[in-house]
Amino acid sequence: MEDLRSTTVPDDPVQRRDLILLERAREGDLEAFNDLVRLYQDQLFALVVRMVPDRDQASDAVQEAFFSAFRNLAAFRGGSVKAWLNRICVNAAMDTQRLRKRRPAQPYPELEDESWQPPAGDDADPERIAVHAERSHALAAAMALITDDQRTAIVLYDVEGYDYGEIAQMTGVSLGTVKSRIHRGRLALRGLLEDSMELFRG
Amino acid sequence: MSDPLTPTSTDHTSHDRLLIAGLVDRSPDALTPDERRHALAQVASCTECRSLLADLRALSSALPTTSTPPRPRDFSLTPADADRLRPRGLRWMLGLIGTPRDSFTRPLALGLTTLGIVGLLVASLPGALGGFASSAGGAPVLSAVGNAIGEAAGSAAPAPAAAPAASAAPSTANDRQSDALSAGPVKGQASAAASGATRGAGYPALSVAPRSPEDTNLVYGADNGTPETGGVAQQAPASDGGAGAPSGVGSDLAGTAETTGPSPLVIVAGAMFIAGIGLLLARWSARHFGNR
Q1: Confidence bin at B138 (pLDDT 50/70/90)
Q2: I want to staple A97 with a disulfide (CB 3.0 to 4.6 A). Which of A127, A148, B60, B66 is the partner?
Q3: Residue B260: Cβ within 10 Å count
Q4: CB distance from B185 to chain A under 8 Å?
Q5: Crossing angle between the packed helical segments A164-171 and A81-102, to the nearest 10 degrees
Q6: A122-202 is classed in which CATH architecture?
Q7: pLDDT tens digits along A41-67
Q8: B144/B253 same-domain check
Q9: Mean pLDDT of chain B, nearest integer
C-alpha cells in the first residue's frame, strides 16, 4: 500500500514548514536544506553529545548525520522531519560509539568549560545557575562512565521520550533488553553519584 | 500460604533493586503486575528501597534538564559538500526505489515475480503444458504449438500456402493433430484447409503468402492474405511441405526445444522471477535503510 503520510498535510505548522523545506531541498535547493540544519543542529548535537561523551566525536557524528540526511532526501517517507533527523543522528551516534570502542577518547575534557552553563537571563539567580551547572557536570561525568548501551537507552527513554518499542527498533535489540539497560543504567548512575546525590534531591 | 513475591526479609541487600528501578518508568509495561506489587511492597517495608526510588526518580527527571556542551561549529553544508553528496546515476535511481514518489516498481516487481512463479510451475508440471520443461518431450508439444500457429496463419491465407508450416515438424504430435483435422492425403494442406474452414479468417497476427516460386515467405503482419516479400519470417520450401522440411514457426520452435538444456519457458520465467525478487529486495532495502 502506498505510504500516504507524505501526501497528507500535517496540522502542525512546524511540521508543515519542515516538509516544505524538505521538499525544496529534494528539488535541489541547498539553502532549504541548510535551513533545516540550522533549525535542528542544536537539538541534534545535544542528543548526540549525550550519547557520545566526547565533543569532537559527537560533532563529527552530527556532521555525518547531516551528510547522510542529504544523501537520503529521496528516502524520506513523510511524517515528522525532526523524528527522521533524530533517527539518523541516533544511528550516527551508535556508529561513533562502536568506533570509540576501538579508539577510546577522554570523555568530556572540557568539563570545566563555563560555556556549559545555561545562558543567564535577566531574572537568573546566580546560585541556581551554579547548582544547575554543577549538576549537569556531575551527571554528564557519570553518564560517560556507564556502558554505551545503557547510556543510549537512558538518553532515548528519559531525555528524548521514545518508548520501549521505538528504542528496541532503533537499537536492534529486544524490548526486554531495552528495559534491562534502562534499569541497570539508572542503578549504575545512582551508584556513581552516591556522594553527590544532594545536588539532585529537592 | 505466603505470597512468594512478597518480600519477607527486611535486609535491603536481599531486595531486587532492578524492580525499584522499574518503578521509575513512565510506561505501565515496565513491570508485570506481580513485579509491581513486589516492588511496592519492598518500598513500603524498606527505608533504603524508598530512598533508592526517590534518588532514581530525581536522576530521571534531572536528565532532560541538564545542559550539554555548546555546539562547536555550524553543520550547514557547503555547495562543495552538496555536489559531493548528491546521488548520481545508478545511486540516484536506486535511491528513488521504494520512495513515496515511486509508484511503479512495486506492481512491476510483484508482476514479474508472479509471472515467474507461474511460468516455473507450468514448466515443472508433467503433461501437456509440462512438455515445455522436458527437453525430450518438448519437441512434439512445441511442434503442435507450431502447427497451431501455422493453422492460424492458414485461416487468413489461401489454404495451400499454409501447408509448409502446418506439416513442417516431423513429429508425432504434428501427425496426430493433422490426422485429427484432416482426411486428405496431404496432411498439411488438409490441416490448413480444415482450419480455414472451421475458424474462418480472424487471426490477424500471422499470414502466409501464397505459395509460388517467388512468394514463398511466411510473413508476419498483414492479415488480408496479400503476398508480402522481404518479411522477417522463415523461408519455406517451394515443395509441398514434405515431412521433415524445416519450415515455418512450428519447426523453429521444435528446433529450439530439441537443443539440450533448459527450455525457453524455464529461462524466461526464471529471469522474470529473479528480476522480480531483486526488485522487491531493492525496495525492501531502500525502505529499511533509506531512513538511516
Answers
A1: very low
A2: A148
A3: 6
A4: no
A5: 50
A6: Orthogonal Bundle (1.10)
A7: 999 999 999 999 889 999 999 999 999
A8: yes
A9: 64
Residues from chain A contacting residue B68 (CB–CB below 8 Å): 45-46, 49-50, 116, 136, 140
What are the grid coordinates assigned to B252, written together? 523453429
pLDDT of residue B104: 73
Calculate how close chain B gets to A60, using CA atoms only, in Å.
9
Q: Are the Cβ atoms of A37 and B77 closer than 8 angstroms? A: yes
Quick one: CATH architecture of A9-110?
Orthogonal Bundle (1.10)
Phi, psi dihedrals of residue B208, rounded to the nearest 5°? -125, 130
Residue A100 near residue A54 (C-beta atoms within 8 A): yes
Length of chain B: 292
What is the number of structural domains in chain B?
A: 3
| Model ipTM value | 0.83
Best residue in A54, A169, A174, A190 to probe B by mutation, most B CBs within 10 Å? A190
Q: In chain A, what are the domain boundaries? A: 9-110, 122-202
- Residues B193-246 have pLDDT tens digits of 444 444 444 444 444 444 444 444 444 444 444 444 444 444 444 444 444 444
Task: Please count the other Cβ atoms lying within 10 Å of the Cβ belonging to residue A102.
Answer: 6
